[in-house]
Amino acid sequence: MKLIFSIAALILIPAISLAEAPVTDGPLGFVLWNSELIQTTADRLEKELGDKHMVYQTIGNYEGHSMYLVLRGKTGTSEVHETESDFYISMRGHATFLIGGELTEAEMRPRKQQRGKSVSGGKSHPIGPGDILHVPVAVPHQIVIGPDEPYMYILIKLDEEPITPKRASAL
Questions:
Q1: How far apart are CA 128 and CA 4, in angstroms?
Q2: Which residues are bridge partners to 124 per DSSP?
């Protein structure tokens, strides 16, 4: 009986591992993250969140852009990026997106960014699954999380400081 289980494990474990890795069969830089991999990673992040403000998984870092799967459990800081723009693709949960106005209590951070306590005088937009947002360069923004509902999104950062392209790693 042990022999049967051992043989089954030798066959199934590599198949399961392959299903959890992005497809990189193509030219250097090509990566495919299928919906099953994204959902599996999203489920794992939900288990990891606990009482943290945020957990995330890097999907990829490339020259000039990067992608992340992010789960926020609490409202974080407000921010402004002096050289990069962001795309947000809402996946799970609901939040309020503040954009425009000014950062309160702003301080400079590495990579030409500023962080603040909140956004003052901006516009407020409810966001949820299926919504896509674009944040232009140098525009203050913040995601406000409700007390009982985490918010998950894919974040695509454009025009970042140069990062050497890499083959994708497993989510």
A1: 47
A2: 98
Q: How many CB atoms lie within 10 A of CB 55?
A: 19
Domain boundaries, given as residue ranges, for the chain: 2-158
Would you tell me which CATH number, out of the four given (1.20.1270.10, 2.40.110.10, 2.40.50.140, 2.60.120.10), belongs to the domain 2-158? 2.60.120.10
The tens digit of pLDDT for each residue in 46-58 reads: 999 999 999 999 9
List pLDDT tens digits, range 84-131. 999 999 999 999 999 999 999 999 888 788 999 999 999 999 999 999
Taking the C-alpha atoms of residue 96 and residue 99, their distance in angstroms, rounded to an integer, is 10
State the DSSP string of 50-79. TT-SEEEEEEEEETTEEEEEEEESS---EE
- Determine the Cα–Cα distance for residues 85 and 134; give it in Å rounded to an integer: 7
